[in-house]
Amino acid sequence: MQNESITPREEEEMRLLVVLEQVGKRMRKELALLGDRREDVVGFRQEFWDDVRMNFSDSTEVGETWSSIMQQVELLAERERSHKVASEAVERLTKQFDSPYFARIDFAEQGSGPEVIYIGRSSLVGEDGDTFYVYDWRAPISSLFYDHEPGPAAYRIPDGEMKGELLLKRQFVIRGGQLKHMFDTSETVGDEILQAVLSEGSDTSMKSIVATIQKEQNGIIRDEKHKLLVVQGAAGSGKTSAALQRVAYLLYRFRETLGPDQIILFSPNPVFKGYISRVLPDLGEANMRQMTFRELIEARLGRRYEVEDLFAQTEALAAAEGTPEGEARERSVRYKGSEHFFITVERYLKRLEQEGVRFRPLRFRAMTIASAAEISEQFYGIRASDGFGTRAATVRRWLLERIRQWVDSQIGEAWVEEAAELVDGEDIQRAYVDVRRRGGFHDEAFDDEEQMGERLRRRVAEDAVAPLVKAVKSYRFIDAVAIYRELFESRSLFASCSPDGKLPQGWEWMLQRIEDTIGRKTMDHEDATPLMYISEAMEGFRKVEGDIQYVFVDEAQDYSPFQAAYLRRRYPRARLTVLGDFNQAIYVQSQESGGFGGWTRLMSPEVTSVLRLTTSYRSTEEIVEYTKGILAPEDAASITPFHRSGESPIVVACDDGGRLGERIALDIEEMLGRGYGTIGVITKTAHETGNAVALLKERLPDEVPVTLITGGAAELPKGVSVLPSYLAKGIEFDAVLVWDASEARYGKEKDRKLLYTVCTRALHVLRIYYTGEVSSWLPRQGG
Ligand SMILES: Nc1ncnc2c1ncn2[C@@H]1O[C@H](COP(=O)(O)OP(=O)(O)OP(=O)(O)O)[C@@H](O)[C@H]1O
């Protein structure tokens, strides 16, 4: 019975106490468990070596020692595993102690009375196992909170829909176990809690948005129907946030079958990787795998080539702009990222099934173990229908056997004898252990010495060919680079593979460029993905990660259609969630496709969903309206700001670079004085950052931290960060100060989106500085 004199707030405060008491009880239990086990583990570690019987006096003893160590390691791992389970629970409960839930809904299913549901980051069930004090935000019923206003409502259940009426929707801010605020949605205009959250300062890492997920975002988070989800969202519309909440949702929804290592997220750069790494742990989930496309390239090609990265490519294109060389390169970058080229390569691969695969001969010193022609004969001797994978694997086995036979044939050869003379004690020891393992060195064995000699020689020969074995095992006998070059070296071959039978414009230039770069063991960024694709296809995509169930691609507008198609092949069984903003397509390689074409056509329309997010949550209304003015009106039309007001953007004219630095330094001090924790000074290229840092350090007091962010940095620090535009992708700052937005720096058509990307990183303050003439992309009203 509700007491008339109790206000809803008092009622909620009492209920909070009940929940906290439950959390406390659980916590005590878990802590006791943890305490027991911790002592266990610490003590055990100390005893670890005492219990191991250490004896290396002979091989039998070594074996004994080894197994005794392994036994202890197994035991320790076992104990640490259960210890981890307990500490995860303690961690979760600690968070629940701080803030056990953030929402309440009262829902009456059709034909029954209202049920009161509290929603939090994780669930809390009473000791009876029946009382749900708090529901996890990912439970089916919780979606009512995100999707509906009070009134008729429904939520999805595994076998249909549960309909009813939402009677109350209440939001709470609970911190440190205290009820700070509560609002009923029906009582307030707009979303007070979202307002409050967005007005806070930004941090050096991204936050979870669990308490304020918006309806359109919830649609992305909970989609289970589509194999390909493509999200076009305005800058700051919560694409990355929704993606991470979706990962957490999927891990919960499919917890029996899906682990974090079966989810992979492609991030734009290492800075961004660090930036988002705290969201999932904050939601109580382990992080998924994160990768940059660059890492894929490095893993495959980096050992043998110095591969240019996307940023270096961008800067090289910028530097050569306007020259014939620059134009030719740009054309080549666009072409090699295109679907046309992907189809050409696919058709080339088809041809290679019949003929043309280039192999490297297997040689040891001047001796040929298997010639390229022999390898080719083996390869093409296997049915084409078996596919590249089976054929390459069969040839690999054949080559390994061939090496083994060759080693046998070499035991008596002079070079082996000579090398055996030179071996050191350790090798002799190993040969001894070998012979012994085979039952030698007992009374009846008269030929032990001879055996030892033979073992030694064999070992010497095996050691000598070890690099060859390794190369064969990693399929180095397939010469992917020669295969790729061949496509450009033969005009008729290229034309016959090209879908329209034509050579691309600038084909001769591309051929010459490949010769120049690859000959020097360097590689242009635009050649890396096609080469990687050919190389992996030739091995039958043996390294494809069939295990990966979900692939997320953030900042998807930066990928070329070729890269999109390649990723689809690489993760053949995965469902794809692709998020991007065509207004932020800043790289030449993806401009051809309008930023998205490559993705939306990857799968059939029935399994594809293309969604839009148009409300921008990051920046104040003033900043959103201002930055919309940078874009072409048709591109900006649908972007709407969330109603949060702040300072209008300011454009500041400076006489020269020195003055510009001076003015920015002054403004930095002002921003710090106003309590802004993260300030981003964003330059166009990496080239300018060094100069900017030097100027700022000179003018700012020593205690103001100024950090230069480079491509390799993985942490975003507090204070002032100086970084080039492309590293600012996806991240945000309380205040953004744009370094030199002059017409000279941002005057070209392709600078428009770059300037937009840079300016939309700002949460509260945007100031733009320039020397000379101001970029004509900036709206006039700002100054
Ligand atoms: N529902 C929400 N509740 C609270 N904050 C939100 C919500 N959606 C987005 N935000 C905030 O808006 C900001 C931008 O979000 P996010 O970085 O996910 O956007 P994005 O679309 O990936 O942006 P961009 O494309 O510009 O990199 C973040 O600070 C995020 O916390």
From TrEMBL:
<dbReference type="InterPro" id="IPR000212">
    <property type="entry name" value="DNA_helicase_UvrD/REP"/>
</dbReference>
<dbReference type="InterPro" id="IPR027417">
    <property type="entry name" value="P-loop_NTPase"/>
</dbReference>
<feature type="binding site">
    <location>
        <begin position="233"/>
        <end position="240"/>
    </location>
    <ligand>
        <name>ATP</name>
    </ligand>
</feature>
<dbReference type="Pfam" id="PF00580">
    <property type="entry name" value="UvrD-helicase"/>
</dbReference>
<dbReference type="GO" id="GO:0000725">
    <property type="term" value="P:recombinational repair"/>
</dbReference>
<keyword id="KW-0347">Helicase</keyword>
<keyword id="KW-0067">ATP-binding</keyword>
<dbReference type="InterPro" id="IPR027785">
    <property type="entry name" value="UvrD-like_helicase_C"/>
</dbReference>
<keyword id="KW-0378">Hydrolase</keyword>
<dbReference type="GO" id="GO:0043138">
    <property type="term" value="F:3'-5' DNA helicase activity"/>
</dbReference>
<dbReference type="InterPro" id="IPR048228">
    <property type="entry name" value="HelD_bacillota"/>
</dbReference>
<dbReference type="GO" id="GO:0003677">
    <property type="term" value="F:DNA binding"/>
</dbReference>
<protein>
    <submittedName>
        <fullName>Helicase</fullName>
    </submittedName>
</protein>
<dbReference type="GO" id="GO:0005829">
    <property type="term" value="C:cytosol"/>
</dbReference>
<dbReference type="InterPro" id="IPR014016">
    <property type="entry name" value="UvrD-like_ATP-bd"/>
</dbReference>
<keyword id="KW-0547">Nucleotide-binding</keyword>
<dbReference type="Pfam" id="PF13538">
    <property type="entry name" value="UvrD_C_2"/>
</dbReference>
<feature type="domain" description="UvrD-like helicase ATP-binding">
    <location>
        <begin position="212"/>
        <end position="620"/>
    </location>
</feature>
<dbReference type="GO" id="GO:0005524">
    <property type="term" value="F:ATP binding"/>
</dbReference>
<dbReference type="GO" id="GO:0016787">
    <property type="term" value="F:hydrolase activity"/>
</dbReference>
